[in-house]
Structure formats: structure tokens, C-alpha cells
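chain below, 118 aa
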Amino acid sequence: MACWLNALAFPAQVMLSVFVILMIAHTVHIGALNVAQVKKIRCMENADWLIERNHVKPHVYRLKETTRLLGPLIFLHFQSDTKTLYLALGSDSMTNEENRKLRVALKVYKNQLLNPKV
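prediction:
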């Protein structure tokens, strides 16, 4: 932690260290590091998303507005009737073709994916 290498006062160093530890714990707690072990994400015709996880029956989710594209990263936020799922995907977690298709779907068709006509 860089805050220990500078001239900050000791209380400030402790406070920054605690903040970093809490942020890491929160990131792990919400499952953004694929603790959920997601194997496959598929967009269905009705704009629902089928998510397959290891050792768990596939579950249907709805994409939330807080989904974002940020450079090479894709931050996905899904909601089902009972669960919320956060995923951070890098370009190395899928093939180039899958990455391209997901980015196009999120950039071009995001409004239709968020507000499907049933």
C-alpha cells in the first residue's frame, strides 16, 4: 500500500488502509470477481439473459441500467426475481468474436435490452 511509503500522518495511513480493505471485501461480497463461477451468458429473444454457473441450474436474469462499458472492461449488472448478480468481464475472458458481439449488443441495442416489449 503506497500510503505507507509517503509522509502522511499515521491516522491517515490507517484510515486509507482500512478503506482499501473494506473496498476489497465489498468487491468480493457482491461477486464482481466471478466468485459465482459463471460459465456462460446468453441473451434470449425476449431480452432476458440466461446465465449458467458451475453446479447450479441455469437462471434467467434481466439486464439493469447500471451495466457499463469502460475501455476493455464490461461491467454487467443483472437482476432476477430473487437475486442480483454483478460481473466484471475483461476482453481476455471471451473470444474476440464474443467480445465484439456483446459490445455491439450493449452499445446498439441497450435500450431494447433494458425495456423489452413482452
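The longest strand covers residues 56-63. The CA atoms of residues 93 and 99 lie 9 Å apart.
thats it, cya
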